[in-house]
Each structure stands twice: as C-alpha cells, then as structure tokens.
C-alpha cells in the first residue's frame, strides 16, 4: 500500500515545496523592501534631528544674546546715560531677534509635529508587517514540520526496505554457496592442474614472492573465517531451537553456557583475518622476507593459538549438547548413531593434530567431508521427525551450507600448503659482496633499512629549497592583514565620531570667542568710565567751591558734551556687535559644513555596509540554491532506489507466488495420493473382513 501511495505523494510534495519556496522568497523580498523603507525613514529622522539640534543651538545663542542685550538695556536705563537713538537701535535689534526666535520656534514645532506623524505611521506599518511576518512564519514552520514528518516516514520505509534487501542478499549468498558445492569437483580438478603446472615449471617456482603467497593465504583464510563465523553462528541458533525451543521454554544450563561461548566466536575468529592482513601489509619488495624477519607472523600465530584454545574450550559443551539431543524423547537410534559419529568427527578436528595443523595434516579434509556428510544425514533424519519446525529446517540448511564452505576452504588451504611446502622449508643465504660466508637474515634486514634511509637522506640533501617568505614575517603580515581587515569598520566609525566631536568643539570655540569679545568690550567701557570719573573727581577736588558753581552753571554744556563722547563709543560698540554677529554667522556656516561632511562619511560607511550585506546575501542565496539542488538530487536518487526496490520486490513476489503455486500443486498431488492410499486400505480391509466372514460361515 505504501509503495502505491509514494508515487502520488511525491508530486504533491514537490508542488507544495515550490509554493512554499515562492512564499518564502516573496516574504524575504517584502522584508528587504520594508527594511529599506525603515532605513530611509531613519535617515530622514536623523536629518531632522540634526536640523533640530542646529536650531536649538541657534536658539540658545539668540537667547543668550537677548539676555545680554536685556542686561545692557537695564544697565543703561538704570544709569539714564543712554540716548534715545541708541535705545531705538537696541529695541529694533531686540524686536528682530524676537521675531527670528518666534519664526524658529514655529518651524521647530511644525517639524516636530511632522516627525511625530511620520513616526506614528511607520510604527503602525511596521506592526502590521510584523504580524504578517509572524503569520507567514507560522505557516512555514507548520509546513516544514509536516514535510519533515513525511521525509522521516519515507526514510523509515527506506530503511525497512534496505533490511529486506539485505535479507534477500543473504539468501542469494546462500544460493551461491550451494552452487559452489556443485562446482567443487570442477575446482578440485583445476587445483590439481594448477599444482601439476607449478611442479612442472621450476622457473616460476623459483620466482614466487612471499607477498603472493601471503596474498593467496589471505584469500583462503578469509573464506575460512567466513565459513567458521557462519558455522558458529548457526550452531548457536540451533542450540536455541533444538531440542528445546527457547521461545517456548528455557533451554538447559549446559546449552545456555554453550550458546554464551558460541556468541563470543567473533572475538577469536576475526583476529585471524586481521593478523594475516597485517602480515600481508608488512611484506614489501624492499624487505628480506623469511620466517625470522616477519614480525607479524608471531601475532598471527598467537591469534591462531587462541582460536585453538577456544575450540578446545567449547568441545566438551558441544559433546554434551549432542548427548542431550540423544537423550531426547523423539531421538531414534539412527539419529543417535549419527550424533555419535559427529562427536568423533568433532574430536578429530579439535585434536592437537587436527585443526591446529590444518595445512600439514592430510586427514583433516576427509574428516571435514565426513562431518559434512554425517551432518547432512542427521538433518535429513531430523526432517522426518513429526515435531520438526520450519526454523530448524532453515537452520540445518544454513549449517550444511557453512560446513560445505568450511570443507571447501580447508581443501584449498591443504592444497595451498602442499604446493608451497618447498617454499616454506627452503633456506635463503645472504652474504657480503665478494665474500664466501653468509650473514644472518636479521642483519640483512637492517642492512636494507639503512640503505633505504641513506638514499632518502641523499635525496633530501640534493633537493633545492624553493624561495619563500620567512615564517615569522608571514605571520606578522597575516596578523597585520587580519587586524586591518577587522578594524576597518571600527576605524571608519571612529573617524565619523571624531569629526562630530571636532564640529562640536568648533561650535564651543566660536561661542567662547564671542563671549570673550563681549567681555573685552565691557572691560573697555568700564575702563573709560572709570577714567572719566577719576578726571571729574580730580577736577572737582582742584577747583573748590567756584568749580561747583561753575559746574552747576555749566550743567547744560556738560550734558551736551558728554552725549557726544557716548555717541562715539556707541558707534564703535555697534560696529563690534555687527562684526561679532557676522563672525557668529560664519561659525554657524562652518559647523554646518562640518556636519554635512560627517553625514557624507556616515552615508559612505552605510553604503559600504549595505554592499557587504548584499554580498553576504548573494553568497547565502548561492548556498541555498546548492542545497536545493542537492535536495532535488537526493529526491531523484530516492525515487530511483524506490523504483528499483519496487521492481525487485515485484519480481520476488512473482517468484514466491510461482513457488507457492508449485508447492500447492505438490501438496494437492500428495493429498490425492494419500486419499487414494486411504481408499485402497479401506477396500483391502473390507475384502479381508469378507474373507474372514466366509471362512467362518464355511467352518
């Protein structure tokens, strides 16, 4: 059912995936446009804030100027020495400043109101977009979880199908083992012909290398290890099935212990293959290979000895297990005799001269053949028992296959040792150049090693060194490059901040210069006034009472001369004030220019940051496109695998259906034969009864 639904689900998932991708891309585009709008609004907001700051600063200057003028006006009114003309000038200037201040307040209020309205609109728009984004993200997360569940289910189905395919592969392997049994005679003939060819060609025998021999031994040992692993595993499986099924009732403690030991067989069998692989890898063309120089041979011999001890350890449990099978209620005498023959075969294999010398003992191959034959006869007898199960039959077939493979492997190993016995027993002599005596193989090994190291050293000396930058200098250059790359943005920000600080300090400098000029003007006025008072005081003290009368009489003249001097001083003061006003205006223009420069630098930094973000977004888009491509490739691959597994399963189901049809036909034939036999037996019994009745009547 799942196989029929999968092709329908995949187009739907693809269509939904395309819709989801399109929605995600649209949301990303809308979010990017909104971010751009927010940035523009922020830039306009910063511009308005800067204008507002400049207006505030100008307002403060004007307020200070008004306060100064008011103080001077109050001082002039208190003393009563200011003329009407100067008062009018101050009033006119004050009125202009008040009007200018009022206009600035109006502009500031309008700009503030406009900024608040824009900010409220942008906040409302931003909240609405955030809600839409959350809704879209919720939809995306739900669809993603749904697709992840679907993908996980498909992966689980794929794993289940892979397990099924592995079981079918194992069955195919078993079938290949059976075919190898059928081709065993052909292989024996081929091995005999190879042996005769090796015996006849002495030149080839002299040029055989130890690595080739080790490679052949590795291939044979790998077959032997596979056969031993299968034999021990299927023996463990049989212990749990017969004579008692562990799934129905517990097995005996003896079989439990035997099963536990058999479960540990891989720890003793696998090191055989690993040790021989290491031995094969240690043999190279540059080394002198004899029994004394092969160091890994000792490790392999240790692993082989450990496996021999393992066989001796499980031997009594195996014999007792066979005795327990003989003691079963359904065990016949023929089955007991086969078990006894198997016991003798197992004893002969695990004897000190048996498996431990599998290559040199010529009687091991017949023993393994007899053991396979006896076990085959035992399995055929067990199949005739009424309580035999399908699980036991399958296990017996697997055991027979593993025994056949084991017999084949032992035959190959025996042939291998017999063919290479001369090579193993031959002695090779090594001697110095021009000398008659020989040296030890270990010395030859060390000589070859020293020669190899000397050649490598001479090649290293003759090799010219390429020109390169010193390591310390390259490290310093790398640090400088990394630090400059990392701190470029920080330095840009520091430059912008420094320029803003310089502009602020320039404004403060202009302010304090104006204050200093005003203070100087006040000081000059006060000094002139003090000098005039001192002159009047000295003249009053020198003239006496007539001077007083003359002063009283000349009040009008003094009043006419004093305003003339004050008018001259007021004109100078007015010129100085106008000059200070223009200087302040120049300072304002300078600050505005500096602010515009800082804004330009800031905008440049923002543009660079946006360019970097755009490059990062392009890279992320490329990576996402590659991921989507890989995902599509994986989907197509999974579809192909699903199609292949579907075809294989259909073929297997058709084969199984054909097999079931054949089995049903055979069962129907057997039932018909049984029915005919029953009818024949009934007829014969009826005839016998009739004959007996006739005899009784005759009597």
Automatic annotation (TrEMBL):
<dbReference type="InterPro" id="IPR040024">
    <property type="entry name" value="PPP1R21"/>
</dbReference>
<feature type="domain" description="Protein phosphatase 1 regulatory subunit 21 N-terminal">
    <location>
        <begin position="8"/>
        <end position="94"/>
    </location>
</feature>
<feature type="coiled-coil region">
    <location>
        <begin position="31"/>
        <end position="79"/>
    </location>
</feature>
<keyword id="KW-0967">Endosome</keyword>
<dbReference type="GO" id="GO:0005769">
    <property type="term" value="C:early endosome"/>
</dbReference>
<keyword id="KW-0694">RNA-binding</keyword>
<feature type="coiled-coil region">
    <location>
        <begin position="607"/>
        <end position="648"/>
    </location>
</feature>
<dbReference type="Pfam" id="PF10212">
    <property type="entry name" value="PPP1R21_helical"/>
</dbReference>
<keyword id="KW-0175">Coiled coil</keyword>
<dbReference type="InterPro" id="IPR019343">
    <property type="entry name" value="PPP1R21_N"/>
</dbReference>
<feature type="coiled-coil region">
    <location>
        <begin position="488"/>
        <end position="543"/>
    </location>
</feature>
<feature type="coiled-coil region">
    <location>
        <begin position="112"/>
        <end position="199"/>
    </location>
</feature>
<protein>
    <recommendedName>
        <fullName>Protein phosphatase 1 regulatory subunit 21</fullName>
    </recommendedName>
</protein>
<dbReference type="Pfam" id="PF10205">
    <property type="entry name" value="KLRAQ"/>
</dbReference>
<dbReference type="GO" id="GO:0016020">
    <property type="term" value="C:membrane"/>
</dbReference>
<dbReference type="Pfam" id="PF21636">
    <property type="entry name" value="PPP1R21_C"/>
</dbReference>
<dbReference type="InterPro" id="IPR049372">
    <property type="entry name" value="PPP1R21_C"/>
</dbReference>
<dbReference type="InterPro" id="IPR019348">
    <property type="entry name" value="PPP1R21_six_helix"/>
</dbReference>
<dbReference type="GO" id="GO:0003723">
    <property type="term" value="F:RNA binding"/>
</dbReference>
């Amino acid at each position: 059912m799942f196989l029929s639904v999968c092709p329908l689900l995949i187009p739907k998932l693809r269509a939904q995936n395309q819709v989801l991708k399109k929605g995600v891309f649209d949301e990303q585009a809308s979010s990017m446009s909104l971010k751009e709008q927010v940035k523009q609004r922020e830039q306009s907001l910063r511009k308005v804030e800067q204008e507002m700051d400049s207006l505030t600063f100008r307002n403060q200057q004007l307020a200070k100027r008004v306060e100064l003028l008011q103080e001077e006006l109050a001082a002039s009114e208190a003393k009563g020495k200011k003329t009407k003309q100067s008062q009018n000038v101050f009033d006119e200037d004050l009125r202009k400043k008040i009007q200018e201040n009022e206009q600035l307040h109006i502009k500031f209020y309008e700009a503030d109101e406009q900024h608040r309205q824009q900010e409220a609109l942008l906040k409302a728009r931003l909240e609405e977009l955030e809600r839409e984004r959350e809704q879209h993200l919720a939809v995306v997360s739900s669809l993603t979880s749904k697709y992840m569940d679907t993908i996980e289910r498909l992966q689980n189905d794929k794993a289940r199908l892979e397990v099924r395919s592995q079981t079918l592969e194992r069955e195919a392997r078993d079938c290949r083992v059976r075919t190898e049994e059928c081709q065993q005679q052909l292989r024996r003939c081929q091995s005999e012909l190879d042996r005769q060819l090796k015996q006849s060609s002495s030149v080839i025998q002299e040029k055989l290398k130890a690595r080739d021999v080790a490679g052949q031994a590795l291939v044979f040992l790998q077959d032997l290890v596979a056969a031993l692993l299968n034999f021990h595993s299927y023996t463990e499986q049989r212990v749990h099935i017969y004579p008692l099924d562990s799934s129905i009732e517990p097995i005996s403690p003896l079989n439990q212990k035997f099963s536990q030991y058999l479960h540990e067989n891989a720890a003793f069998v696998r090191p055989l293959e690993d040790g021989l692989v290491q031995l094969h890898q240690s043999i190279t063309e540059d080394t002198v290979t004899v029994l004394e120089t092969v160091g890994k041979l000792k490790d392999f011999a240790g692993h082989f000895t450990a496996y021999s001890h393992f066989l001796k350890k499980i031997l009594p449990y195996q014999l007792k297990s066979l005795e327990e099978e003989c003691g079963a209620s359904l065990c016949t005498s023929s089955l007991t005799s086969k078990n006894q023959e198997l016991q003798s075969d197992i004893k002969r294999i695990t004897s000190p001269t048996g498996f431990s010398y599998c290559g040199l003992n010529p009687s091991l191959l017949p023993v393994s053949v007899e053991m396979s034959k006896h076990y085959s006869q035992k399995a055929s007898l067990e199949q005739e028992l009424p309580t035999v199960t399908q699980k036991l039959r399958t296990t017996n077939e697997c055991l027979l296959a593993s025994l056949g493979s084991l017999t084949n492997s032992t035959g190959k190993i025996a042939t291998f040792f017999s063919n290479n016995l001369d090579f193993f027993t031959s002695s090779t002599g090594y001697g110095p150049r021009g000398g008659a005596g020989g040296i030890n193989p270990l010395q030859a090994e060390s000589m070859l090693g020293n020669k190899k190291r000397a050649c490598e050293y001479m090649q290293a000396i003759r090799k010219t060194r390429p020109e390169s930058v010193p390591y310390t200098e390259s490290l310093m250059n790398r640090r400088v490059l990394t630090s400059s790359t990392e701190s470029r943005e920080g330095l840009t920000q520091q430059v912008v901040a420094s320029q803003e600080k310089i502009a602020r300090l320039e404004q403060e400098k202009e302010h304090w210069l104006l204050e200093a000029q005003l203070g100087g003007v006040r000081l000059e006025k006060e000094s002139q006034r003090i000098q005039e008072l001192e002159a009047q005081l000295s003249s009053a003290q020198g003239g006496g009472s007539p001077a007083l009368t003359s002063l009283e009489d000349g009040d009008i003249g003094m009043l006419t001369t004093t305003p003339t001097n004050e008018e001259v001083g007021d004109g100078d003061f007015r010129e100085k004030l106008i000059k200070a006003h223009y200087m302040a205006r120049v300072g304002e223009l300078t600050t505005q220019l500096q602010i515009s420069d800082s804004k330009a630098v800031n905008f440049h930094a923002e543009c660079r940051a946006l360019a970097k973000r755009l490059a990062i977004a392009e890279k992320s888009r490329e990576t996402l496109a590659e991921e989507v491509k890989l995902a599509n490739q994986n989907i197509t691959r999974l579809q192909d695998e699903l199609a292949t597994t579907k075809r294989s399963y259909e073929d297997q189901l058709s084969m199984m259906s054909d097999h079931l049809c054949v089995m049903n036909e055979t069962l129907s034939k057997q039932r018909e034969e049984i029915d005919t036999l029953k009818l024949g037996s009934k007829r014969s019994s009826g005839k016998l009864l009739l004959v007996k009745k006739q005899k009784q009547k005759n009597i």
